[in-house]
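Thread: quick sanity check before group meeting

JM: Hey all, I'm pulling together slides for Thursday and realized we never actually wrote out the predicted structure for the chain we discussed last week. Dropping the sequence here so it's in one place. If anyone has concerns about the input, flag it before I start.
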Amino acid sequence: MTVFITGATEGIGFELMRIFAAQGHDLILVARNESKLNAIQQEYGKQARITYYASDLSHPDNAEFIYHDLQYRKVCVDIAINNAGFGTSGSYTQTDWEKEHDMLKLNMVTLAYFTKMFARDMKARGHGRIMNVASTAAFEPVPYMAAYGATKAFVLSLSQSINFELKGSGVTVTTLCPGVTESKFHQRADTQNTLQKAKILPQATAREVAEYGYKMLMRGKPLAIHKFGNRFSVFMERFLPRSIVLRLASSTTH
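JM (edit): ok, ran it. Output follows.
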């Protein structure tokens, strides 16, 4: 079985890579840092056959190159995990547009492209699994992380819709929604203060999220919200006025 993972050198993507490598699956890894990819290949190459692309997926042209190169090499992807993504924080009128634009392209456009291409191929073969990594932020507006939250809402809506369309095809699309997770995400998003304020929320390690996501992916579950506390929060938001949901969300991001 061949497994494709983006954002494979850090956090949840790295832990998912470890799970699949331990099972001896062929791995295709994508990340920006070539030295880290090479180190992974050296360390885990005895367990699994690993190939990689050192590529910045915030440029969708790179995603198209990777997909077409796999087609040229006649590689059939059985499992595709779209994990690469990052966040920005701050008042929307003051955040840097170039960084935000890269985030929009990576979190949405590249993910949508890989999902479409791999789902199309899998449907033609009659089997396959896709997992798109969203967030509990997908279920609510997130003041001071407005664009990031919007990208994750996009991922959730897109993935659930496609999974419905693919019923009976042998292909499933799982949306993984972690809550607060210990990873380098907060360094890049400059949300270390948010991490401290969010101590009251359920927290997890990247390994815990990856292990849960793997189980849900292999079961073909359409939605995977990690931890009961997060599932309860998402459920309760349905019954609260939107103004209160906004106020609660902003209290942990600002």
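AS: nice. Strands lie at 2-6, 26-31, 50-54, 79-82, 128-133, 171-177, 180-182, 203-205, 223-225. Residues 2-253 form a domain with the Rossmann fold fold (CATH 3.40.50.720).
JM: adding both to the slides.
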